[in-house]
Amino acid sequence: MRTLFYLFTLLFITNTTFAQLTNTSFENWNSVSTEKVATWESQGVVTKVGSAQAGNFAIKLETDVQGGSSVFLSTPFTNGYPYFNKVDTVKIWVKYSIANGDTGTFHIEQFNSDTNLVRAGEYFITTGTATQWTEISIPLLAFDTSYAPQTIAIYAENTLNYDPKLSSYLIIDNIRCYYKGVLQSNIPNNSFENWTTKTVNNIVGWTTSNELFAQFGIDSVNCERVSPGQSGTYAVKLHTVDLFGGGPFIPGGIVTGSNQGAAAQTPNAIPTIAVNQRYSSLSGYLKFNKKGSDSGEAAIYMFNSGNLVGEGHYRQGSTISAYTLFEAKIKYNPGFSGVPDSATIVFITSSDPQNATGTSEMWVDNIQLNQNALGLNKTGIAVNSVYPNPFSQELKVEISADKANCSISSLDGKEMISQNLSRGTNLINTSGLAQGFYIIKITDGEQSISRKMVKE
């Protein structure tokens, strides 16, 4: 089954025509309504269809250019959906067309808890077509039936993840559970009659976290259109979502360009918009409502022929309730004196998205690229960059503040290195550290930012 986070393939783009930076005041939005099957998690092209085997509707899984589609009966991040009946057979009605060399897959498990597997079974549909409803029967083999079942997980996918075929589809309806030939109580929405309609507003010319996480069955809207903006009618509001009232926390974010899911995960590797000047900074207006220890971030990455040649960061580490002008100054790589040909801009509610700690909110409006830096004093920690990651014998920390402190701690909180910093590039000797993960914390006495980094 697919992991819900950080699945995007790293793409290196060269000789590509990019869109221009547009909609910088976030006035233009598309309203998108989608139907989602109730109770089940879904991913990919999953649609409601008529001509059902039972009831009015069935569910269809299709392949698109990004891969296959799937449905999964489970609660997020667990091993199943509450179901206490014993099951030794699951019967499902299907229609399908599976291309040559492809395979449709069903996988079923019953657990006593997250660790105790009671029964499990699989069923594969290989090359072929069934245009009429066909019933398949999936036996569940016993693993440890001394445990009473508490959950059931049912997973179906129309194609192979590693080699999807665009023509393969799978239609499913009327799933039933049996034990010793006796029909058991229905699982939730077993005949796919119940669907919900959801409408979200997506920013024209940008990719939002709503679009990214919807692909993985996460419905939380963490990018919204709000009014009024700093000027004009609209601004964009990003906020971190707490999925279960105690984590995990999913930051809200946007990245330049349409359909740029990969760039949202690796913005320092994938250019998304064209530029033709050697810009000095990115600026705009933002508000920030800090929760936990998170800092909001605005970042810009500059590229030439697909190679990263410069970057700028602004991190907001404290709450500001009114729109405030910010600036992320761009620092170009030593030795690069040319003009970048492309860039990527990203805004996110946590500068450390994999370790977000609270439901922070950030409003952004009226951004622009500047040929000459505005010379603003930063509101947050004035850290330009911390690199490389992974690091080896030394770590470089660039700050534009007069002074700060950098501490390096192990994951259990033991401080290994503490060093005062001054304006410019600071070298930290890390040769005495063992290989592994560390927390790098930079503070100016009032505010701080933290990053998880690895020594190789």
Q: What does this protein structure show overall?
A:
- The chain is mainly β.
- It contains two helices and 35 strands.
- The radius of gyration is 25 Å and the shape is globular.
- The N terminus is likely disordered.
SSE map:
Elements: E1 19-20, E2 29-37, E3 41-43, E4 45-49, E5 58-62, E6 70-73, E7 81-82, E8 89-98, E9 104-111, E10 117-125, E11 128-139, E12 141-142, E13 151-157, E14 169-179, E15 182-183, E16 195-203, E17 206-208, H1 209-214, E18 223-226, E19 235-239, E20 241-242, E21 249-250, E22 253-256, H2 261-265, E23 273-274, E24 281-289, E25 296-304, E26 307-316, E27 320-329, E28 331-332, E29 342-348, E30 361-370, E31 383-387, E32 394-410, E33 415-429, E34 436-443, E35 448-455
Parallel strand pairs: 1-23
Antiparallel strand pairs: 2-16, 3-6, 4-5, 5-14, 6-13, 7-13, 8-11, 8-14, 9-10, 9-13, 10-12, 14-15, 17-22, 18-19, 19-30, 20-21, 22-29, 23-29, 24-27, 24-30, 25-26, 25-29, 26-28, 31-32, 32-33, 32-34, 34-35
Mean pLDDT: 85
Head-to-tail CA distance between termini: 30 Å
- The dominant shape is globular
User: What is the percentage of strand-forming residues?
Assistant: over 45%
Features:
single chain; 456 residues; mainly beta; eight-stranded mixed sheet; seven-stranded antiparallel sheet; 35 strands; 2% helix; disordered N terminus
